[in-house]
């Protein structure tokens, strides 16, 4: 075997020139083809149209023969076989209707283009006549085959029956749409189809009315099934039937919407049926969002409301008066209970906090008022069971969503019970020092000494150390004074005792403590601890400090301050 080695050789100038010439030739040929091919395509379309016309006639003839064969087989057959042949016959007729429709559309387009012959025009008229007859026969056949299920059928049997019904309804809707399109084409061929159009409009109107009746029946059956399930929750058959009827309502709604769309294409008035559809299902569609439809709906609702007012107005007014009177009476009773609670708390020896006082008063008032509202609702015929159940459910949801808030609430309840502080107390808690200006079950408001407002959650306060500065009526002032080691200790003690005793805010009991506390690095330190009322604490603290300094100066007692001797050592140079 001979092996061939292929090597890449560079293109010469002549080769490049030939390649460029070939490329230009191909580009020119492609451009010419772009101009020539559309003309050839148009000719091909004309040939295809001619063949399509002949083919249409052959297909129509073949489909009509199939229908005739099926109709010839019907006599003498059993019910099951006859039903099967009817199904095939319906499909064959629908195929023939669609074939007629496509044929007529093709001829109508050719007529507008001016390419149809007189023979084709006559053929179109003949097809139109056959189309209208086939439409009528097919409609009758489909309507006769639609039978509602019996009441004693199971849920599975009912579902199977409705599945067949809605499949036949889809076919019927397709026949009606072909009918509408066929009549429009007949008018293009200048045929008088006023009578056929009137019959079609009447058929659509009947279908809309029947659909509304069936929808209302289905809605009533769904309501009855829900009542049954509410009474017997374990009824599996009722639950299955409820699912079937819910799907049936959805299918009926879609079918009515399709019918209304056909009616609107014929410029028929559909407001009444749209109103019924909205009233039955509560579904708002784009067709319903019309001024006339909403006008009819509001007028109908207004008439219904007026009739109800006339029929049951006096009873409703009486119940409303009873409701208002009961609530008003219990509102006054709640106010009276609030006043009695306030007096009881004032005369009580427990001395509750302000927060507890406000909470108890509020609970008493709201409890009495809530009892009145519930009694009033029961008197006018409103069941309290669902109301109480709803309140419990709402409380559960709120509690789950507000876990942190409820933790603060629990801490507030503990503060309220154990009363570690109250409003106007000066405390240190939660990392904040200041005066308590307000309290609630969720948080506490502080007013600091530099006039800042700080709000602290009760959970943070209760979980930390609480220092109540003003919980006691008297406080001890802790002062420290230092004298020099060279001063007379006994004289200093006498001077300090006289200064403290001279201040009017210092209490005689408990006795003031003056003791030599320590020997410091630079001074001999004394502690001075007088007792004062809590409101006089800081004024006395500052006054005693000032008076002690002035008296020490007069008595020649020095208050030393730290001193340090520094010795400099200078080394001699060698």
Structure summarized in a few sentences:
This protein has 574 residues and is of the alpha+beta class. It has helices at 13-73, 79-113, 118-145, 155-188, 194-231, 236-265, 271-281, 291-347, 354-379, 384-401, 403-418, 458-462, 489-502, 537-555; strands spanning 426-429, 432-439, 443-447, 453-457, 467-468, 474-476, 479-483, 513-519, 524-529, 531-533.
Structure description:
This protein is α+β, with helices and mostly antiparallel strands and 574 residues long. The chain folds into 4 domains: 50-293; 294-401, no CATH class; 422-468, SH3 type barrels (Roll), CATH 2.30.30; 474-555, Alpha-Beta Plaits (2-Layer Sandwich). 68% of the residues lie in helices and 8% in strands. The chain has 14 helices and 10 strands. The strands form 3 sheets. Strands 4-3-2-1-5 form a 5-stranded antiparallel sheet. A 3-stranded antiparallel sheet has the order 7-9-8, covered by helices on one side. A two-stranded antiparallel sheet has the order 6-10. A hairpin with a 5-residue loop joins β3 (443-447) and β4 (453-457). α5 (194-231) runs parallel beside α7 (271-281) and α8 crosses α9 (354-379). It is elongated. The termini are far apart.
């Amino acid at each position: 075997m001979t092996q061939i080695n292929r090597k890449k050789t560079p293109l010469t100038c002549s080769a490049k020139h030939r390649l460029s010439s070939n490329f230009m030739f191909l580009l020119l040929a492609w451009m010419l083809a772009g101009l020539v091919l559309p003309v050839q395509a148009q000719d091909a379309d004309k040939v295809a149209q001619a063949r399509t016309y002949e083919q249409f006639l052959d297909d129509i003839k073949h489909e009509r023969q199939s229908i005739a064969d099926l109709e010839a087989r019907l006599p003498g057959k059993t019910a099951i076989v006859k039903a099967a042949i009817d199904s095939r016959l319906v499909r064959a007729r629908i195929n023939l209707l669609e074939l007629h429709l496509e044929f007529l559309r093709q001829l109508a387009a050719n007529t507008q283009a001016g390419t149809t012959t007189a023979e084709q025009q006559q053929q179109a008229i003949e097809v139109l006549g056959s189309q209208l007859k086939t439409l009528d026969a097919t409609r009758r056949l489909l309507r006769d085959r639609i039978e509602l299920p019996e009441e004693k059928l199971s849920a599975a049997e009912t579902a199977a029956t409705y599945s067949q019904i809605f499949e036949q309804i889809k076919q019927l809707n397709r026949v009606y749409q072909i009918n509408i399109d066929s009549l429009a084409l007949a008018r293009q061929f200048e045929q008088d189809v006023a009578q056929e159009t009137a019959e079609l409009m009447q058929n659509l109107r009947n279908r809309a009315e029947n659909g509304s009746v069936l929808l209302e029946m289905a809605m009533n059956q769904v309501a009855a099934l829900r009542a049954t399930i509410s009474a017997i929750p374990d009824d599996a058959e009722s639950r299955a039937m409820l699912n079937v009827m819910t799907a049936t309502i959805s299918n009926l709604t879609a079918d009515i919407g399709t019918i209304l769309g056909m009616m609107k294409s014929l410029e028929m008035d559909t407001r009444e049926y749209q109103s019924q559809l909205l009233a039955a299902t509560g579904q708002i569609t784009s067709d319903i969002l019309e001024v006339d439809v909403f006008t009819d709906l509001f007028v109908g609702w207004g008439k219904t409301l007026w009739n109800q007012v006339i029929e049951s107005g006096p009873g409703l007014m009486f119940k409303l008066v009873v409701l208002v009177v009961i609530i008003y009476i219990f509102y006054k009773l709640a106010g009276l209970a609030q006043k009695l609670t306030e007096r009881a708390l004032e005369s009580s020896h427990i001395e509750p906090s302000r927060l507890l006082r406000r909470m108890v008063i509020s609970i008493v008032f709201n409890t009495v008022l809530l009892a009145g509202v519930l009694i009033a609702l029961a008197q006018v015929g409103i069941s309290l069971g669902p109301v109480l159940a709803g309140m419990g459910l709402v409380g559960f949801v709120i509690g789950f969503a507000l876990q942190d808030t409820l933790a603060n609430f629990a801490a507030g309840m503990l503060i309220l019970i154990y009363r570690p502080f109250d409003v106007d107390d000066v405390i240190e808690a939660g990392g904040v020092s200041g005066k308590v200006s307000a309290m609630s079950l969720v948080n506490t408001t502080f007013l600091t000494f530099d006039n800042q407002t700080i709000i602290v959650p009760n959970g943070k306060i209760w979980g930390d150390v609480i220092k109540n500065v003003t919980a006691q009526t008297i406080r001890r002032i802790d002062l420290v004074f230092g004298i020099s080691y060279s001063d007379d200790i006994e004289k200093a003690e006498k001077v300090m005792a006289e200064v403290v005793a001279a201040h009017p805010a210092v209490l005689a009991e408990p006795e003031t403590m003056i003791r030599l506390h320590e020997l410091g690095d630079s001074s001999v330190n004394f502690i001075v601890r007088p007792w004062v009322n809590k409101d006089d604490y800081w004024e006395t603290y500052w006054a005693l400090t000032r008076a002690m300094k002035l008296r020490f100066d007069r008595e020649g007692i020095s208050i030393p301050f730290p001193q340090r001797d520094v010795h400099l050592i200078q080394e001699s140079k060698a």
